[in-house]
Design a protein that fits this description.
The protein has 898 residues and is α/β, with parallel strands linked by helices. The protein has 24 helices and 34 strands. The protein has a 7-stranded parallel sheet, with helices on both faces. A 6-stranded antiparallel sheet has the order 5-3-4-1-2-6, with no helix packed on it. A 6-stranded parallel sheet has the order 14-30-29-15-28-27, with helices on both faces.
């Protein structure tokens, strides 16, 4: 094959190959052929040859000459002319890699989605309808799609280090480079054994703001060295126009231009919050204020976030809004579209590769000015970023489960710090991490006055919270649903108002214990927890259509009259269920079983399971006798006798002959009652009232008004117009009693999220000990005070966020190997080894699943956090050169410590 000479002017391309080994996380120089000179620009995807293999990579910059004195290898090809890696995202990626002791290649896999050639062709070729060469362009798009490389795999690519005697396929251009430049100096070029972040990267919660307004000056548009910063960050006008004209039938939200829609200049609701209007004024003026916003109970928080983003857009900048899940994303996105039109797009993994890449390109090219997404949205390249907002930062979904395991909140703060964008952390509750940055002065409170709070909050109480209450009901604290809770719910239902019941656990009876000695019941095969499942086996479920299963639930679409089982789960026809409950959408009178679980129409109702007749409101009912759970005992279900056999929640094996390992007893008792069992009991307690379930795979976004009981697991509470009249927060001990550092913080966050759905003047009852400080914080609605209390306690015992932790998971040998190579800071504390936290995934390497994995914890002051990360990065690089395949994982500030 004939090759042309090198490109004129800047014939050297500095490339970052996406290599898995930690010691190869550095830049290499390649020769740019003349035919690729025009499209081989900083930020594009390329294919390069490394150690005899073709590897994906990104061009970081073009140079006139290289430090390498040997022969350079040529670029194989430019995958796409789209500049997907902007200088701002490169700086963020290097800072995140340094913060979490990872590699830039791993962070880039999180930051930039896989390429979709057809979507890029749409933007480059323009509208297919507006061109006469439609067929040739379609053919070209197909050829481009066929020739495009597959997306970068997360599987390890173990490459051999080139021998020193061989002809170097490329030069290692990073070993002689000086330290990284500050943010204003443009793209950061990493060093193999030094921090990839900016020099003197500030610890966010340790450094006070420069001024009282916490505003950070915006960085210059281009770097001081002139290495194409402006070229990459600013898009071609033609590209934006072509994207706007592209075929929008596949995804109209991402392909339309910014509409000429008038954005309101004033949002008076923010006047409820102290300094709220001043905060909006700072956003409108192009400043970068930073705030911790505590929303009022009942606040329309999706609308408030959309208003903040609209103010930023009206000033000519863009915004990124992060939410925990798809349900919240849909709510916030709809409000943003109502304010700014189609310049707001949503980014989530559920979109599919083509739709997601189209919207991501819209943000890159400047067509989309507001991006609403989940944790990956924090890396979205935006033009002139003005705001990064995160809602409910304590949600566990913000913790990335892939290496290097960054947390979206920390990444958002890093990005706001480096770009000068505004930062908002909003929620009904507050985490200790956000309280720490407020105390440091990096961010400020955005709170409502206590007088305003008292006017809008519901009445919150705990059973037995006073001597008078205990006199009225001495066992209020001892039973799961006390009489005061039943009374409040009954009054609300009689008035035609909805009731919310929050349950910590889904399922039927998800936890069992020995009835004699209370030892948790474990599986003999895998030591997993035993539970009473709420569904029959797949085979039994399939037989329900033939009428052969007297099981618990015919979950979906049972035929009429065929199922003497427990419950038709969804859409059962009239007369179809002779079992326990018509779970969802059964018509009135259709279930001669115990209960109609979710009546989506006015005809649905709970019915008497013993007689198969519609209930009569106010009629006397037989007393409820709790069914014992005992091995070998048959329990009546809808007129049929059915034996209970618990099953393991881990391996699924049924334990037909349980015997307690501690005392030898065969009897079992329920430790935790799940949402399904709770709904069943409430259905018998409130006859004639529809009961809806929300949780697991069947999460309801909203429910209509009217008398109903909504049983929801935590985080799945649906919205009802006007709010709930009563909310019952059950099993508070299950949330507070978890062996977790964040148990109290998470419990308060869950409770406040549910209580915020209750209307002003409504009633909230939390079934927990009122003497606990977390319960008291809920009763007073004091999230800031509770966060301060949590931070003080963690500071006293040296836990995050007051210190920096590194959790090293692996076998005894792999951990010892890493610690031997690491040059740890002098003040580091080595804690452990300890077992992995319950439910934590084991680290894998080379397809191995180690039987025994332990955790070692390294603890240092926050001032030494960067030194600890650098030491671990260097040790991982040395270990990589040894080609050690023993399982090992390093996490900085993990959510679950153990």
């Amino acid at each position: 094959m004939t090759h042309t000479g090198p490109a004129a002017g800047h014939p050297i391309a500095r490339v970052l190959p996406l290599l898995e080994p930690a010691h190869l996380d550095r830049d290499f120089d390649y020769l740019v052929p003349a035919e690729l000179d025009e499209i081989a620009q900083p930020g594009v995807r390329v294919r390069v040859r490394f150690s005899g293999r073709l590897i994906d990579g990104y061009i970081l910059e073009r140079l006139e000459k290289s430090d390498h004195t040997g022969r350079l290898v040529r670029l194989e090809r430019v995958v796409s002319s789209e500049r997907v890696l902007t200088p701002e995202i490169l700086r963020l990626v290097t800072a995140v890699a340094a913060r979490y002791a990872g590699t830039r290649a791993d962070v880039l896999r999180l930051a930039i989605p896989p390429r979709h050639a057809k979507i890029e062709a749409e933007g480059e070729n323009g509208s297919k309808k507006a061109t006469k060469a439609t067929k040739p362009r379609k053919a070209a798009a197909r050829r481009a799609s066929d020739s495009a490389p597959e997306s970068v795999s997360n599987a390890p690519v173990m490459l051999d280090e080139p021998d020193a005697d061989d002809v170097s396929p490329m030069s290692d251009a990073s070993h002689e480079r000086p330290a990284a430049a500050p943010v204003s100096d443009g793209p950061i070029v990493g060093s193999p054994h030094h921090s990839y972040g900016p020099r003197g990267l500030v610890e966010l919660i340790d450094t006070p703001a420069a001024d009282g307004a916490s505003a950070v000056a915006a960085p210059p548009a281009a770097d001081s060295n002139g290495h194409g910063s402006a070229e990459v960050e600013s898009d071609d006008d033609a590209d934006s126009e072509q994207l706007a004209e592209a075929d929008s039938s596949a995804d109209p939200d991402a392909s339309k231009p910014v509409p000429a829609q008038a954005i309101p200049s004033d949002f008076p609701v923010w006047s409820q919050y102290e300094h709220g209007q001043s905060f909006l004024g700072a956003l409108a003026a192009g400043q970068g204020p930073r705030a911790a916003w505590q929303a009022l109970p009942g606040e329309d928080w999706p609308r408030r976030l959309a208003e903040l983003a609209a103010v930023v857009v009206s000033s000519g900048r863009s915004a990124v809004l992060m939410v925990p899940d798809q349900r919240d994303l849909d709510r916030v996105l709809s409000e943003c579209i109502a304010l700014v039109g189609d310049s707001a797009v949503g980014l989530a993994a559920g979109l599919g590769p083509s739709a997601r890449y189209r919207r991501w390109l819209a943000a890159l090219r400047g067509t989309a000015r507001i991006v609403v997404g989940t944790r990956a949205a924090v890396f979205t390249p935006m033009q002139n970023l003005g705001l990064i907002a995160i809602w409910d930062d304590g949600d566990g979904t913000y913790a990335e489960p892939r290496s290097p395991y960054p947390h979206a909140r920390e990444v958002a703060m890093l990005r706001a710090h480096e770009t000068g964008a505004a930062f908002v952390a909003g929620g009904f509750a507050r985490t200790a991490e956000i309280q720490a940055i407020v105390e440091s002065g990096w961010a400020h409170d955005l709170l409502a006055d206590r007088g305003v709070l008292r006017q809008v909050m519901p009445r919150i109480s705990a059973p037995g919270d006073s001597d008078a209450a205990l006199e009225r009901d001495p066992i209020a604290r001892a039973i799961r649903i006390p009489g005061i809770a039943f009374l409040a719910a009954r009054k609300a239902l009689a008035a035609g108002e909805p009731v919310l019941v929050q349950v910590p656990r889904r399922g039927y009876i998800p936890a069992l214990a020995c009835a004699k000695c209370r030892t948790p019941a474990r599986c003999r095969h895998c030591n997993g927890p035993l539970a009473l499942p709420d569904t029959t086996s797949e085979a039994s479920r399939a037989n329900t259509t033939a009428g052969s299963t007297p099981g618990r639930a015919a979950r979906v679409g049972a035929a009429a009259g065929n199922t003497p089982g427990r419950a038709p789960h969804d859409g059962a026809a009239a007369g179809s269920a002779g079992g326990r409950a018509a779970y969802d959408g059964a018509a009135a009178g259709s279930a001669p079983g115990r209960a109609g679980y979710d009546g989506s129409t006015q005809q649905s109702a709970w019915v008497d399971g013993a007689r198969g007749r519609p209930p009569v409101t106010g009629a006397a009912r037989p007393p409820f006798v709790d069914r014992g759970v005992a091995m070998g005992v048959s329990v009546p279900r809808g007129g049929a006798e059915m034996a209970h056999s618990p099953a393991c929640r881990w391996c699924g094996i049924t334990e037909a002959a349980f015997r307690c390992g501690a005392c030898g007893s065969r009897a079992l008792r329920a430790v935790v009652i799940g949402a399904v069992r709770t709904a069943e009991e409430l259905g018998r307690a409130f006859p004639g009232v529809p009961v809806r379930g929300s949780g697991g795979a069947a999460v309801l976004d909203s429910v209509p008004e009217g008398p109903q009981v909504v049983v929801s697991t935590i985080g799945a509470e649906p919205v009802v117009p006007g709010g709930y009249a009563v909310a019952l927060l059950l099993d508070g001990w299950a949330l507070l009693g978890r062996a977790d550092l964040r148990a109290a913080e998470d419990a308060l966050r869950r409770w406040m999220s549910a209580a915020a759905l209750v209307r002003t003047g409504g009633q909230v009852l939390v079934m927990a000990d009122p003497a606990i400080s977390t319960v008291q914080a809920l009763l007073r609605w004091d999230p800031v005070g509770h966060a301060q209390f949590e931070l003080d306690e963690r500071t006293e015992v040296r836990f995050p966020p007051s210190v920096r932790l590194a959790a090293v998971d692996g076998t005894t040998d792999s951990i010892a190997e890493l610690l031997t190579e690491a040059k740890l800071p002098d003040m580091v504390e080595v804690l452990g080894p300890v077992p992995l936290p319950p439910g934590a995934r084991k680290p894998f390497s080379s397809g191995d699943n180690p039987p025994e994995v332990e955790r070692m914890i390294l603890r240092v002051d926050r001032s030494a956090g960067a030194a600890l990360a650098r030491a671990l990065t260097a040790a991982l690089a040395v270990r990589s050169t040894h080609k050690s395949d023993a399982p090992l994982r390093v996490q900085i500030d993990p959510v679950d410590i153990g």
